[in-house]
Amino acid sequence: MSNLSNPEISWLEQLPSNLRPDNDKVEELENLRSHYHIPNNIFIGIITSSPEITRRVQGNVYKMAKEKMPNVSEKELLEVVFRTRVFPQNPAGLKMTEEEIRKEIQDINTLNDLVEHVIKRDKEDPRFQRDIFSIGRKIANKIDNILKV
Fold this sequence. Notes:
The protein is an all-alpha fold. It has helices at residues 10-14, 23-35, 40-48, 51-68, 74-83, 98-105, 111-124, 135-147.
């Protein structure tokens, strides 16, 4: 994969190491990016908003929270992880009241439940605000399919 040393793949270097795609997927992703002439910063945004990266991030947050709070219940731990996606802790996060948070977390009993709930909520918000012809959505779907494990 001689393409990995290409400076055009600066999007890869800008991603945190724990969010980088596997090497066997990088070339396919870069081919897609260059084919559609997607700027690196926008490409990073598409990648980091993909369900696969959401799974990794939520898993990492869960692991860190569990290490820092080993004595809390699973339900409390899941609520802590959920709250990392809520404003004001996360300026780009969900705007929710305490009551809304309690209601949403009520049916979440496992990390998998939480991750799937977050992905479902993310799908409700379009990844592209001005995507009149759905080109952005189609590209994002291609990226999502490449990133699937």
